[in-house]
Design goal:
With 78 residues, the protein is mainly alpha-helical. It has 3 helices and no strands.
């Protein structure tokens, strides 16, 4: 899950999260993996965001949707 700064946190339900993550011709899991890889790239210093605020300003909807979907699916893998 993402540790999203308070100013970028959203109250999102599962249906909205699915709509945000279900991109064109891709699955929710693919979008979650894509966003996770973007975060890992950011954390390694190999992207163009100066800091976490810039990252979350750009990806706030997807990051919030990721957390909602992750929380919903977590019991399936426990």
């Amino acid at each position: 899950m993402f540790d999203i700064p308070k100013m970028y946190q959203m109250n999102m339900d599962l249906t909205m999260a699915e709509q945000v993550l279900k991109g064109q011709s891709t699955t929710v899991i693919d979008m979650m993996e894509n966003l996770k890889s973007k975060w890992e790239l950011h954390c390694s210093g190999h992207d163009f965001f100066a800091d976490d605020d810039e990252f979350f300003d750009c990806w706030k909807y997807e990051a919030n949707a990721y957390n909602v979907m992750y929380a919903a699916m977590k019991p399936l893998f426990a």
